[in-house]
Amino acid sequence: MILGFGKGKEPEKKERTVAAPVESDEFQHVLFQGPLSGEKIDLAKNARLTEVGLVKTKELVSDALARRAEMIRIDPKGKATVVTLVVDGVSYSGGRLPTQQGLAVTQMLKLLAGLQPGLRTKAQSGGLNSEYSGTPYELLVETSPQSGGAERVLVRVRNPNEKLESPDDIGFTEPFKLRVRDLATQGKGVLLACGPPRSGTSTAMMAVVRSIDPYLYALYSIADGIELDYIAKLDHDPGDDLETKINRAKRMEANVLLLNPIQDAATAKSIFSFYEQLSMVSEFVAKDAAHGVLQLQEWLEDPKLLSVGLQALVCPRLLRLLCDECKQAFRPNAKLLARVGLPPETKVLYRAMPAKGEKQQAAEDPEPCNACGGIGFKGRTGVFELLDMTDAMRQLVASSPTAQAIKAQARKEEMPSFQQNALLLVAKGQTSLEEVQRVFKSS
Predict the structure, then answer these.
(1) Are residues 398 and 275 in the same domain?
(2) pLDDT per residue as tens digits for the range 247-290
(3) Which residues pair with 320 in a beta bridge?
C-alpha cells in the first residue's frame, strides 16, 4: 500500500450495487442502430431470437448506460447468467438472468454487432452503433467460448464524441506538464507511458503528446487508430517494417514520432536503435515505472543502451472523484494527518456518503444520490509518477538495478510520485483517503 494510514476498511464481500438515476419521464431505452461494420442485419431471418432476446437486451444495455457503465460483462454461472457492470473502474452487480434468457441476450448482442450468433466455439469481436438519451455510443462486443458450450460476453462502451483529454483534464499539473514537454522535445530519446491494463496508459501517452506545441515541433505518427489534426499521419506500405517507417519519419524531419505500443523485445530493440536520431513516444504494460525499467531491461538485454536511450517513464493510475452532490466533510485529527503525510493545518477532508445498507448516523437509509447513483463517486482523474532519467538515474539503470533500488533513487531525487499527487487530490477535497487506499492497496 502506498500510504501508511492503517489497514482501512476491508472491501465488502457482498456484491456492490448502484442505483440508476431517477428518470422524470418513462424510463428510456437504448436505440440500436446497426453494426459498426455497416453490415445490414435482417431481424426477420432471426425472428425467434429477436422475439425472445431483443427487449431484454435493450433493457440490460439501457440499465447499464443509465448507470454510466463503461463495460458490461455477461458470464454463464451454472443455472444462471451473471451480469456485472464496471463503473469508473469498479465492478458492481448488474443482476442475474435465467440461463436461457442469458443465452438469448448473448446471441442477440452478437447478431446486433454483426457476429455469428450460432458460432460458440470461437472468439468473435465486433460492435454496434447505438444511442441513449440523445448520446451516441459504440458498443464493442467481444465473445470468448467457455466450457460446456457457454460463452462470456464483454461489451465495452465508448462515446465517439468524447475526445482524448488535454493534459490538464487528466490531471497533469503545470510543472509536470512542462517537464514532460521538455523531455519529449530533446530531439532524441524514448519517452514511454507504462502501467497495468485499464490504468489510463494510452490516455497518458496522448497527454504527453498534447503537451508538445505543434507550432514549434513537427509531430508525426505511425500509430494505428490515432487520427488527430495536429499530428501528421505518415503513409506507409503494408509490408513496411518498423525500421522503414521510422526512417521515413526521419526523412520528413520529424521532431517527435508517435509509435504503436511496445509488446515484444524485437519492437523495443528497433525503437531504441534510433534513440539518437529523433524523439519517440510510445507505451507498454508494466506494474509501475520501476518495473517498467525491468521490463525494458529484459527486452533490450543491454542496460547501457537503456540508460542512454530512455528519457523518462510516465506511469498513471486512475482515482475516482468524489461526487460533489453528496460527498461528506469531516474534521481529521492530528494523528491521521501525520500518518498519511498531510499538512497539520489541514482543517477538513471529504469522504463518500455511505452506500445504502452501510452504517449510518441517521435512523433510516437515505435515498441514493441521483447524480452518482448512490456510489459516492462520479468520474475519474489521473495521478502520475515520473521516472526522470537524470544523470544519477542513468548511472543506476546501467547497473541493472532492482525495482526497489530504482524506487529509492526516485524518492531520493524527489521525482513526482503517486503518493504526492494522490494526497494533493485528497487535500483539495476531490477524492478520499479510502479511494487512494483502494487503488494502491497492492502497491
Answers:
(1) yes
(2) 999 999 999 999 999 999 999 999 999 999 999 999 999 999 99
(3) 380
On whether the CB atoms of residues 126 and 109 are closer than 8 A, the answer is no
Do residue 210 and residue 154 come from a single domain? no
Is residue 318 packed enough to be buried (19+ CB in 10 Å), middle (13-18) or exposed (0-12)?
buried
* Domain shared by 316 and 253, yes or no: yes
Residue bearing cell 496522448: 206
Q: Please tell me the distance from the alpha carbon of residue 219 to that of residue 214, in angstroms, as a whole number.
A: 6
Range of the domain at 301: 167-320+378-440
pLDDT-derived band at 183 (thresholds 50, 70, 90) equals very high
Angle between helices 47-66 and 99-112 (to 10 degrees): 90
Closest listed residue to residue 205, CA positions, set 293, 280, 266? 280
**Could you tell me the pTM of the whole model?**
0.82
Residue 21 lies in a domain: no
- pLDDT score for 16: 61
13 pLDDT tier (thresholds 50, 70, 90): very low
The DSSP annotation for 413-432 comes to: TT---HHHHHHHHHHTTSS-
196 vs 286, 367, 397, 402, CA distance in Å?
A: 5, 36, 22, 19
Residues 145 and 238 in one domain: no
| CA pair distance 52, 47, nearest whole angstrom | 9
Residue 244 lies in a domain: yes
Measured torsion, CA atoms of residues 104, 110, 116, 122, in degrees rounded to the nearest 10:
-100
